[in-house]
Write the structure tokens for this entry.
Amino acid sequence: MTDEFRPVEMLAERLRARIASEGPLPVSAFMMEALFDPMAGFYATKDPLGAHNDFITAPEISQMFGELIGLWAVECWGQMGSPDPVQLIELGPGTGRMMSDVARVLRAAPGLVEAAEATLVEASPALKMVQGRTLAGAPVPVCWAPRLEAIRPGPTLLLANEFLDCLPIRQAVKTDGVWRERCVAMHPDEAGRFAFVLGTALAQADLDLIDPSLRDLPDGTLVELRPADAPLIAALAERLHAHPGYALFIDYGSDTAEPGDTLQAIARHEKVDPLEAPGAADLTAWVNFEAVAQEGLKAGLQVFGVMGQGAFLKGLGLDVRAGLLAQGQDEAGRARITRQAARLCDPDEMGELFKVIAFASPDLPPPPGLGRYAPASEAA
Ligand code: SAH
């Protein structure tokens, strides 16, 4: 038993040793290790996506999702003046399924397949392998980049589904009028288990990251900081200022800043305790779309959305697409397609919790299906 290679147990052991030497770890550090530890991280080591694995995402539910996103990109390319070459960038492509569905529909615009070069930004070596297999027969050349900043400048169509939600978050809790970092330490009573504790007070620069509407909430309030959003949107803005481009992000979250703990862990389609077995479960947190939109405006980009995934997909023609796919199917096939469309669009499934935001270079027309951004907090 003791000689067995058990990477997840070894990751827990490394985290315990790190806590013993460095003290409590901010939630962001714990999340980073749990997702990307090279030996046992959740994404780093395996293919967690799909019906039989840990969770299922929109592109894995149905090819219609990627096809509609592809048609969105086709339209945007035309609005950019059909540049050749054009970089088709995807952040966090998972199994590569969405890119393969997108690439197939690029043929709708003459010249686009010849102009497009797909670049995948993926942190996980295991998922890169899966993406390579999925995209082996793709009609466009495919390459990988470690970060958005590493991709050479040029006209851009950028897509990202469920990418923002796995960027590490920090949490802070107000006690006695002071915001303190929420950290992970060892459980005081149960040997070997992890537990949340409160660490040091936030520095002024971190306090500035808390949405102003939340700063004066009472003791006991928990807020989340998403330190990775701003650098990502800044890198995107640099690209879209240098050359024309559009970017589309789809994710789950809220369109206003709200207090509360949204860190969640999913393993084998079930919610589990986020501290229970780092590496064995996916850790994500709600995206704050208002903050992401504000970063875009601050960086001088045009911002569109925020819209529910259901309304967005219907606006792009989901029902027509579903009808076309259903042609020639037997009754079971038609029922399956109807069920898939409902999962993507119904308000009590992914239709409203999942939201869409887009960015564009300053002089481009609005992308298809989305209106100009207006803060939800102002619309109320
Ligand atoms: N877009 C896919 C996968 C979503 S899961 C789908 O919808 O099915 C999140 C993906 O983002 C995984 O591929 C994960 O490995 C990748 N990822 C997460 N953080 C990343 C980072 N900082 N840099 C690059 N890839 C990242």
